[in-house]
Amino acid sequence: MAEKKTPLQQLSEKILLKKKHAKALLNQKDIDSLAKKYVQFISEQKTEREVINKVKKQAIAHKFTNLLEAKKLVVGGTYYYAVNEKNIALIRYQDMKKIHAIASHADSPCLHLKPYPLAETQKLAVLKTHYYGGIKKYQWLNIPLSLRGVAYTQKGRVDFSIGDNPTDPVFTIPDLLPHLGRDQLQKEARKLVEGEQLNAIIGSDEVDDDAVSEKVKLSIAKHLYETYGLTEEDFISAELSFVPAGNAREVGFDRSMILGYGHDDRSSVFTSMQALLDAKKISQTQIVLVYDKEEIGSYGKTGAQNMFFTHLIEELIQRSQSDTTPSAVWRNTKVLSADVTSAIDPNFADVHDPTNANYLGRGVALEKYGGGGGKYSTSDADAEFMHALITLFNTQKVPWQTGENGKIDVGGGGTIAMFLAKWGADVVDIGIPVLAMHAPYELAHKADVYSAYLAYKAFFEHALK
User: Fold this and answer.
1) Secondary structure class of 67 (helix, strand, coil)
2) Model pTM?
3) CB 299 within 8 A of CB 132
4) Omega into 265 within 30° of 0, i.e. cis?
5) Beta-carbon contacts of residue 178 (< 8 Å; ≥ 6 apart)
6) What distances in angstroms separate CA 105 from CA 22, 268, 272, 303, 304, one per listed residue?
7) What SS3 state is found at 20?
8) Rounded-to-integer distance, Cα 196 and Cα 192, Å
9) Where are the alpha helices (DSSP H) in 341-445?
10) What is the mean pLDDT of the chain?
11) What is the enclosing helix (H) or strand (E) of 289?
12) Which residues contact 130 (CB under 8 A, 6 or more apart)?
């Protein structure tokens, strides 16, 4: 016979928040099915161009049409709007009275090539890099690297993807051996490896000609020219980068987690795209937005500080033949800034406030604000929007949690939320928690990925007050 609960126990259950593991609300088969697709997505798409092109390909496969070719929008019609393989929007049109949008970014930390990257040093050929985004440089040593990107030669465009096929060669940046690294180990961690030391070894064979001064460099240059038509000058205009080689993998005896490159922020791109493709009810115009350059402040032509969303709204107004204004549309737009956040790490828990931290496997993280100490560089969502989303997620049985990105004055981090909020839309941050953010391989939980998908789908399918 169950023991009768005391009045205070009953009150505790009524008013205190008790978060369970996300799987308590989910079906394991559904989690595994989405996770399988997601692992393939992040394993195959490792640059922002590859991500954008995959999203576009998926949209076309689902009968989305080019917005710029639509003379008039059809209610229930689906459209895509892509710019320079760096920005894309997927749209399911209802009207211009209300918009629900989910915005994420396709770029991840990596090693870009310098304008003149090819060099010979100590009888080895290297490609010199300039790191992109906030990284711990030492984490990029001694791992297999893949060369990805695009270059333009006299013969036209060449797409590079070398290092992920099992028969491909890989590249690497070797660290100093401990036998000779005593002085190195006395340095601060951020100076263990300098940016100028992130040079990837790409070859060692020489050309057979004593008249040539840099025999190894010419050997590699000859290979690049004969194989791809690439000259040294072509590197200047190319967009090539080193990324971790290999596929994402399941982690743990229970296979509950995923180790892979680019959870930040391709988890949000994948789940928001999938949510839009699967959304059934249409109560407002639904939009998925994907940006570039978030990892370096969202600047430039393709970052979230640009006019991509504003230009999209102008196109939608024109093609819907609506008499509304962009400012009126912005006021009636609600945006989820979909980006990852930090999960509490069992090995470094002291940098978190455990009562205000996100945990792996507890659901998607809904964060009212981000930024740094004093809430700098953030968009602080209002109580009304937060309450509406929490009510929606509870009603739709979406596993969710909330927290902060580390202790005050210890943690912090920006997203694209503030750049969209400045136009007058309601914006809040929401995404999966991860461990080892910005490392070559980040750790995420399958149940959190599925929870993000459910949250985004619910946001698309239901109106908010």
Assistant:
1) helix
2) 0.96
3) no
4) yes
5) 185
6) 25, 8, 11, 9, 9
7) coil
8) 12
9) 383-395, 417-421
10) 96
11) strand 285-291
12) 111, 112, 113, 114, 195
| Closest CA relative to residue 103, chosen from 297, 257, 272 | 272
Instruction: Give the burial class of 13: count Cβ atoms within 10 A of its Cβ; 0-12 exposed, 13-18 middle, 19 or more buried.
Output: exposed
For residue 1, the model assigns a pLDDT of 59
pLDDT-derived band of residue 134, with 50, 70 and 90 as boundaries? very high
Please tell me whether the peptide bond between 264 and the residue prior to it is cis, using omega within 30 degrees of 0.
no
Q: Is 447 helix (H, G, I), strand (E, B) or coil?
A: helix
Specify the pairing of strand 78-83 against strand 257-260. Answer: unpaired
Contact 43, 248 (CB under 8 A): yes
Find the helix packing angle between 48-61 and 28-44, rounded to 10°.
120
Copy the structure tokens of residue 4: 């009768």
Tokens of 400: 């969710």
Sign of CA dihedral 246, 247, 248, 249: negative
**Residues 6 or more apart whose Cβ sits within 8 Å of residue 233:** none
Report CA-CA distances (Å) from 312 to 76, 363, 442: 17, 32, 33
* CA dihedral sign, ordered 349, 351, 353, 359: negative
Integer angstrom CA distances of residue 327 from 120, 311, 334: 56, 12, 13
Q: Which structural domains are found in the chain, ordered by start?
A: 19-108+261-461 (3.40.630.10), 110-244 (2.30.250.10)
Token pair belonging to 39: 């692992």
402 within 8 A of 358, measured Cβ to Cβ: yes
Q: Residue type at 27?
A: N
Query: What is the secondary structure of 344-355 as a DSSP string?
Result: PPTTSGGGS-GG
What the block records as the tokens of 211 is 């008249």
pLDDT (tens digit per residue) in 265-293: 999 999 999 999 999 888 899 999 999 99
Q: What angle do CA 371, 270, 378 make, to 5 degrees?
A: 10
Which residue type is seen at 206?
E
Instruction: Copy the structure tokens of residue 405.
Output: 């990105």
Which of helix, strand or coil describes residue 26?
coil
Give one word for 52, left, alpha or beta, with left for phi > 0 and alpha for psi -120 to 50.
alpha
